[in-house]
Structure formats: C-alpha cells, structure tokens
Amino acid sequence: MVERLDPSIQRKEGALKVAYQNYPVNECENLASLVLQSASAFGQRTAFCEKRDGVTVTYSYARLGTDVFSLVAALSARGLVGARILIAGQNCYHFVLSFLAVTAAGCCAIPVDHAADAEAFEALAKRTGAQAAILSPDFIPKSDRLPSSVRRFSFADLDDLIAEGDALSVDPSALRLPEPDLVAAVFFTADACRGVMLSHRNLCFDAAAVCKMVEVRPDDVFLSVLPIHHAYEMTCGILVPLLSGAKIAFSEGLRYLTREMKEYHPTVLNCVPYLAEVMYQKVMAGIRRQGLEGHVKNMIRVTSAILPEKAALAAKRRAFSFIHKSFGGHLRLILTTGAPADPTVMRGFRKFGILAIQSYSIVECSPVAAINRDRFYRATSAGLPMPETVLDIYDMNEEGLGEIRVKGKNIMLGYFDDAETTKAVLKNGWFYTGDLGFFDPDGFLRVIGRKKNLVITASGKRIYPEEIEALLNENKLIAESLVRIVPDRSAEGVHVEATIHPDRVAVAALRDDNPKQRAAVEIRAAVDELNRILPPTKRIKRFTVSASPLPRTPSGRLVR
Q1: Same domain, 280 and 415
Q2: In-domain check, residue 246
Q3: Is the same domain home to 56 and 193?
Q4: What is the largest CA-CA distance in the chain?
Q5: What does the pLDDT look like over 528-545, one tens digit per residue?
Q6: Statement to judge: residues 293 and 437 lie in one domain
Q7: Of 450, 485, 513, which marks where a domain is finished?
C-alpha cells in the first residue's frame, strides 16, 4: 500500500490514474523562451524580492524580461556570443539575471561557489577557458589573479549594462533563440572534480517535469536558501517558480531563516534533509517545553481522521497554527534533496499540516530524476520516475537491488572536457548513476547508497554503510551516524565501525541527573539491540560518540 493516497481518490475507479495525473504546465525548449513566456503571462506579478541595505526590493516578471534581454543585447554588443562566462555571488536577483541573460544570449553560464577562494577561482577560469566573469562586489577581490583576457563585470555594473542594451532597442521577439541542445550551463559537482554540461532542453524539461508532479501555484512564495550555484536550486528554486508565476524571496543566510520566514511568509521551501530535521526538532522541543505533548497527540488523532486529505491538511494548519506561526504562517510544502530524509521527520511535518516530500536528484539529471508526487508519496522513498523519464535497476541481484540508471530528456550532454568519463557513464542513452537502489511493489524508488561505498566481504557478503546508518538513525537519541567498513585480519577481511552524533534535544529530555551519561548507556543499548538483528558481517564492532555534528558537503551528504 502507498503511504498516503487521498481516500476520496481511492474510492474512484482508476485511483492510480488520478494519482498519476500531471498538473498542467506551459513547457519551453530554451531558457530565453521561458523568460519571454513568464514575462508575458505574469507581467506585474512579483518575481523576486530581496533585502538590499536593509530595504526590501522587489522585481516583477515584466522587469525580469526587460532586464534579461537588455543585458543580452549589451553582452552581444561586446562580442560575448557563445562565450563561457563565470557567475559568482550569493543568492540574489543579479545572480539569476546574469544566469538567464548569459544563457539567453547563447553563451554558457558557469555558476561558481561563492565560498571559493582566489586560487580555486583562478584554476576554474583556466580549466573552463572562460572569457568573462560576472561577480558580486564582495567576490571581485578574488578575481585579481584572472588573466587580463577574462573580462570582469560586477553586479554593480549590471544597471549600466542594462541601460546600454536598452538603448540599442533590440526587439526580443526578433532575436535568434538558443537551440534546445546548446550547452546552457556547466555545473560542477560538489567535489569540483567534474563539470556537468546541461543543455537548455535539459533544464527546461526537468523544471516542467517537477511542475507536473508537484502543484506550484502563482500565489506560492519560495524561500531560496540552498546555494544558487547548485543545479538543484537553479532548477527547483528558480526555474520551477518562474514557470508557475510564483514569487522567489532570497535568504541572506541560514542564521536569518527564522526572521525571513516571518517576513516573507514562504509557502514552499527547498532544503537538504538536515535543515528539515533541525526545523522539526525545534518544533518538538517547543512542544515538550510547553508541556503540550498530550494536546498535540490528541489533535493529530482528530485531524488525521478528516477526509479527504486536502481537508485534513487544512484542518491541521488551523489546529497547529502556533507551530505554523514560527514558519511564517503559510508554509505548505517542504521539498528535500541531496540525501535520504528521515521518514519520522517527513511524517511529522505532515501531521502538522505541512506536506514534506523528497526527491532523487543528481546533477547529471538536471538534476531531478525522481520525486514524490504531492498526491502519491512515501516518507521512505526518493519518489517516482519523472514524466517521460525512465528509471531502471541495472544488474539487479536476487533482492531486486542494483545500480540506478536513467534515460530521458533531462540527461546531461556529458562532462566538460572529459570524454572518457562521459563514455563510462553514458551508454545507449542511459546514464549510470553509481547509486544503488530498488523499486518497491508500488513503483517507488528506494536509494540505498553509493555503489562505490559498497563493500563485499571475503565470503561474498555485501555491506552497505548507508543501510546500517539508516537503522541507527531510527533511534530517537541518535541525530546522525557515519558507518565505516574497516579492513582487518578476520575471515571476512573487514568489520563495521560507526561514529554517532546524539540528538541534543532528545538527550536533554531524558529524565536523569546526568542525561549525557544516561544517553551513552542508551546508545550502547541501541547498538547492542541492532547487532542482535543484523547478520554477523554487518554488526557494529565498535563505535564512538561525537559531540559535534558530522561533517557534510554543501549538498547535505556526509563526508566519508
């Protein structure tokens, strides 16, 4: 059975057909068309808002369209046609404007991590053969080492460039739009080892596919918190709302998140699972602190009995308005990516009237390959295949587990300047992800972990570190864990070790004179209990407790 399928749908004939029904969306084949279409359709509706010198500044869809094509004209007048252009800065309007103008001009955008240092930036510019760079003012000093052949522009220069382009009186409708299969952008993977070339078709198709599976409304407000140089934020945090006429509010950083939620009243939040977990833990800590556990449990029971689910969610939002207030009062949807989310957290948010669903995203798939539908989902799953996208389990074992491979219009063109690696992962239209997973009986994808993390023992037994981590993390006292497979001289040749970071809130809630000592005893008991049900090769031989959160990549993955 599915996690939750609206009972009003279940009573109808062809329940799955309704659940799989796509939401309507106007599709485009290039980013220039997307800008033109949205500017025409949504006109004076607010597209972006941000803080500048303490003042909230807004930009309409019409303004976005005018700015993009005026900047296209200015870049073209400077001979930057087909150029590779670096873009570096924090999440803001000028970053999006630069990205859309560069791609609409038929150039290739190369988003850069704002945290990159001068040496890394210089190396990236040389590696990509960039001819220009558009940078935020605070990033300009990091560009001093660039060759003089690389033309530099500051975000502060964009207004002047737009004025120059506007004076050229170029009619956007008369411009030659980029071919769908032209490289629009090169997104570098988290370790900066590989540059993923994504076409206009890739990005537009993927954004539209997300809109088909999850309803995005013109009155939605997206709060942009994920790094904008990542493909996920550009697709799901920028292009998805632009296709739908929604508003995007730019966060100044996670430390301002609470204030910004109350100020911008977001309805949709894209985030990594760790942020969702922190938000949920704060909610639960507040409930315990106020002694409301019994009241909350009763209200969850009452509101969960309401049918259909849409009415139940509305009732929950009213019943738990004191919780919603801390998120700005209007948050209805949380989309997580980057790593498997804690099912308890996903279910917990839904109990309070906030739909929380996860996706399976990988840069090479532009980046979403699977996502839970908002009417058909599972808390334990990475989702269902995207429309017109095929997911397959390759080299499947007797348990149905194998390597996930993907075929569709969202598959990258290849890796930048790396034909050998491209050839290794792209075969006959299939992209081999390197991730291991399986489909459950209802077609939901479960991702187990990276193929490269799989360890096969001397006797042929398979050990998946992520699988053991997921079992450990089910304990309420464990916030996160990292499992390592360590070589030894045993018959199997390896043993399992773990680093465990306790849940600070759960530890504080222990009724004991020394909660930390009690937590250590409880965690030891949890490990012992888990070892009793695990096969010998997967049992945890030793573990350490870390007082600090475990290191993670910017995309939320554990650093192994």
Answers
A1: yes
A2: no
A3: yes
A4: 77
A5: 999 999 999 999 999 999
A6: yes
A7: 450
Instruction: Kindly indicate the confidence band of residue 454, based on its pLDDT and cuts at 50, 70 and 90.
Output: confident
Which residues are paired to 186 by β-bridges?
197
Q: How many CA atoms lie within 13 A of 101 on its CB side?
A: 31
Distance CA 128, CA 110 (A): 9
Contact predicate 216/241, CB 8 Å = yes
Lowest mean pLDDT among 53-67, 147-161, 442-456, 530-544: 442-456
Determine which helix (DSSP H) or strand (DSSP E) holds 271, and give its type and residue range.
Answer: strand 268-271
Q: How confident is the model at residue 514 (pLDDT cuts 50, 70, 90)?
A: confident
Q: What is the distance of C-alpha 199 from the center of its chain?
A: 19
- pLDDT at position 8 is 41
| Separation of alpha carbons 98 and 324, rounded Å | 35
Question: Is a pLDDT exceeding 80 seen at residue 211?
Answer: yes
Is 73 in the same domain as 152? yes
Burial 369-385 (b: 16+ CB within 10 A, else e): bbbbbbbbbbbbbbbbb
Among the listed residues 81, 38, 368, 393, the one whose alpha carbon sits nearest the alpha carbon of residue 235: 368
Q: What is the pLDDT of residues 365-410, one digit of tens each?
A: 999 999 999 999 999 999 999 999 999 999 998 889 999 999 999 9
Secondary structure of 471-522 in HEC code, one letter for each residue: HHHCCCCEEEEEEEEEECCCCCCEEEEEEEEECHHHHHCCCCCCHHHHHHHH
Residue in the structure block whose two tokens are 């023992």: 457
b/e 413-445 (16+ beta carbons within 10 angstroms → b): bbbbeeeeebeebbeeebbbbbbbbbbeeeebb
The residue to which tokens 């037994």 are assigned: 461
Q: How far apart are CA 473 and CA 469, in angstroms?
A: 6
Structure-derived torsion over alpha carbons of residues 211, 216, 221, 222, reported in degrees to the nearest 10:
-30
Its domain, for residue 112, covers 31-200
3-state secondary structure of 32: helix
Sheet holding 84-88: strands in order across?
Answer: 151-154, 132-135, 84-88, 108-112, 183-188, 195-199, 414-415
Tokens 């030659």, located at residue? 176
Confidence of residue 555 (pLDDT cuts 50, 70, 90): low
Structure-token pair, residue 39: 């500017």
Q: What angle do CA 124, 125, 131 make, to 5 degrees?
A: 155
pLDDT confidence of 4, banded at 50, 70, 90? very low
Would you say residue 6 has pLDDT above 50? Answer: no
Cβ pair 502, 522 in contact under 8 A:
no
Ranges of H-type helices in 245-369: 257-264, 273-289, 293-304, 309-319, 321-324, 343-351
CB 234 within 8 A of CB 99: yes
Contact 99, 34 (CB under 8 A): no
Number of domains in the chain: 3
